[in-house]
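Input record (Table S2, row 457):
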Amino acid sequence: MKAPLSPERFESQAAEALNDTQLQDALQKATGLFAEKRGAAVDACEEWDSLREHARLIKEHTLLHLDEYLENFAAQAEASGVQVHWARDGEEACRVIEDIARNANATRLVKSKSMTTEEIHLNKALQVAEIDPVETDLGEWIIQLAGETPSHIIAPAIHKSKEQIADLFVEKLAIEPTTEVEELAATARKSLRRHFAEADLGVSGVNFAVAETGSILILENEGNARMTTTLPKIHIALMGVEKVIPRFADLAVFLRLLPRSGTGQKITTYQSILTGNPRPSDEEGPNQIHVVILDNGRTGMLAKAVTRQALNCIRCGACLNVCPVYQQVGGHAYGSVYPGPIGAVITPQLTGIEKTSRLPFASSLCGACRDACPVGIDIPELLLHLRAEIISRQSRLSARIAFRMWAWAMVKPWRYSLSTNLARAFPFLLPVGRWKVNRSFPGLAPNSFRKWWKDSS
Ligand code: SF4
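Output record (iron/sulfur cluster complex):
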């Protein structure tokens, strides 16, 4: 059985990806196309640089006053009938969502695309609670059918070819073999419509949350998020704390940056702005809306300016498409929910550096990610910061071990003599590790001073 993906095994997973010719082909085509479309969209936007700077300033300002803006958002949302929940971590967020479902006797749930729900492993938690989640974004649905995880922030099935998807549909949905994209899409639509019609509950992510009005904004191209948020009687939106922006007018900046950066579109096809529960005069829409605000390690990134900037991310995926490492190894090699350059900087900060220490080294530091980022995140600077932290932790540990050994040897002459004899016989035991990588380490003299003294007296 194949071992589960893990950030600790980046190198071996990357080597496997490099030997997968189908994956290489799919990655080259898709990332090339995304990058080309983004380039054309950016070139056609005269005020691109000022929009980027404007977005960066809005994000920086918001993060410096995050508590205030979150409280404002929550107050406005509650005033319009939304139930707001706060979750310290993924476990708490899953529990909140399970409780809402349980209280409503809801067992059938549809989901629109949300990396935050991937981050907290919501589907797994729901299945344990005997709630059946169905992904409705086409890419996410394909991944769910295949029992895999997304490999790109905005294109979860980017690693799959049309032929592989066709085979999957034949196997799982018992359709007649076809590689016609229209027929495959029609199959997906038919199957998903039934799930929308039967769902008790809809779960979505949030692209932006407006503090001024308590509104949430969800962007998508397929219409599935709109159905997820309007057909079931309960809608739950999960958002990271960093999704809040101060004013409604700020959306005008981000709505121009995000689609151009992500897919090269001037505008996303569906932009759903949801402000509170439907009015009594509205015939459609859910009768309960919940927003779950998730921390899950984000506030730990606020303390330093260098780490704080990662919270500017609007999850457009542009840095993945231009990254020479991602272009070659794809998303699964990173073994984490968030792949690519932004994944290499946020995963260690969200989940701890211990088990993710390979990720900040998965970069050539070429700077293409920084140039592509619509909110001006200096990803190479962050990667270097994390690398320095990892090396300093590792050096601290090896220095502690070396000094313990030194202290043990120095208190008794026989111990000292034993240690030097051992080091002479087995030089590879010397705890100098990586210190030797760029330095020459002189070998020990063939005989000890003691022996020389004894022999010559
Ligand atoms: S780091 Fe920048 S380029 Fe990468 S996903 Fe986030 S906003 Fe987009």
